Amino acid sequence: MSKLQLMVTITNRDVSKKFQHFYKEKGLDVSLMTLGKGTASNEVLDYFGLDGSEKSIFLHVISDDMWLDIKRDLQRVMNIDVPGVGIAFTIPLSSIGGKKALNYLTDGRSFVKEEESELKETKYELLIVIANQGYSELIMDAAREVHAAGGTVIHAKGTGIQKAEKFLGVSLVAEKELVLIVVKTEMKNNIMRAIMDKAGLETDAKSIVFSLPVTGTAGMRMMEEILEP
């Protein structure tokens, strides 16, 4: 069976357009791109042939089966194994908020959803909310109402916006905010539902939310004490 994965690609910004074109040719029109800066030690940067320059970060939702094909062409076509080109990795998705959002993020591709995940029993999950720019406070207000502690906001740009009408029934703007919220697993569904109800596709925020399993944390003790009944 095929599971959904979040594929993360990090490249030097000067080759980001090549990667964007490559992914579009692979049928991955729907993506989120944000900017970053390399911060690794000199030894690590030298080892991978990278530098501390500005980076482009791409996020795509794919299936296991797609990853096998994409990985092969990243190596053969994009020469990603050559030092200095970039890196790509996948993280298992645990849930996506709503069928419309699922169809949009997967571009309508069919896959078989597994009933169980080997990471299902994690204590925490990372919620990723993609929303129109300017609505991060609305999202956090909705999350806090059901006891989320806090989040982090990143500015990003979406691609494949023209497909939103087909899968979501709404139009979207390119400028996005990415809201990251770490929550206890047993609270995840309530928080996702609150965000969808108050800042979802039927609102001006046009939020899409999905979650990733978190396998280890540090610095969460105070949040746990605050959330204790």
Description:
With 229 residues, the chain is of the alpha+beta class. The chain folds into 2 domains: 4-92, 2-Layer Sandwich (Alpha-Beta Plaits); 95-227, 2-Layer Sandwich (Alpha-Beta Plaits), CATH 3.30.70.120. 31% of the residues lie in helices and 30% in strands. It contains 8 helices and 9 strands. It has helices at residues 16-25, 42-48, 64-76, 99-105, 136-145, 164-168, 188-199, 221-227; strands at 4-12, 31-37, 54-63, 86-92, 95-96, 124-132, 152-159, 175-184, 208-214. Strands 4-1-3-2-7-8-6-9-5 form a 9-stranded antiparallel sheet. The termini are far apart.
CATH architecture of the largest domain: 2-Layer Sandwich
Largest sheet: 9 strands, antiparallel
Average pLDDT, to the nearest integer? 82
Strand content: 25-35%
Helix content: 25-40%
As for the number of domains, it is 2
Structural class call reads alpha+beta
The separation of the N and C termini measures 40 Å
Q: Strand order of the main beta sheet, please?
A: 4-1-3-2-7-8-6-9-5
Element-by-element helix/strand order: EHEHEHEEHEHEHEHEH
What low-confidence regions span 5 or more consecutive residues with pLDDT below 50? none
| Computed CA radius of gyration, to the nearest angstrom | 18 Å
Task: Output the number of helix runs.
Answer: 8
> Which topology of the largest domain does CATH recognise?
Alpha-Beta Plaits
Number of strands: 9
Shape: globular
CATH class type of the largest domain: Alpha Beta
